[in-house]
Amino acid sequence: MKIKDKKSSAFPSVNRQRKSRRNLQFILPDGRIIIVGGRAQFNYEFYHGNSQGSSSSSHKAVWLNFLRETRDDDENNLYPFVHLLPNGNLFIFANSRSVVFDYKQNRIIREFLAINGGDPRNYPSSGSLVLPPIDENRPLEPKVMLCGGASRNAFQLVKKGTFSRAASTCGCLKITDEQPT
């Protein structure tokens, strides 16, 4: 992975603890980068830049069982969707399930029900998830909206030359609701 140095046009290298493809990299408020998941990687780790413009590992890879639980035969949990919530925790969506995760304490704060229908939304099924803008002048009520994806067997069908339609459904989840649906 390459990280752009703000002071130059160079992209210094990152010395990674683990080799992984198809993971998610997200910049945290403190400037570190959290790397979540990847092919056969059920963990996360942090990276930060140093004064020489290169980056290094600040922690070893940390097990995140949620990623193992969301893996299926087609690995529909690659490139998990991650959003920073106003309270500093992360919203993580993988395959058809989601959690609020406290990365500072390495614990899942809340787990939500799987999406209706159970169709996977992450790569290779490739849906989209957004956290719409939050109005700072209103009570903080973060919501996520999830659209698209594919049927659970779509990846295997493509290998046989059969292309199925993308999922035409969207869902919205208000993360702060007592019993979100």
From TrEMBL:
Organism the protein comes from: Forsythia ovata
UniProt domain Glyoxal oxidase N-terminal: residue ranges: 25-180
PANTHER family on file: GLYOXAL OXIDASE-RELATED PROTEIN, SECRETED PROTEIN-RELATED
Name of the featured protein: Glyoxal oxidase-related protein
Coiled coil: none
Pfam families (alphabetical): Glyoxal_oxid_N
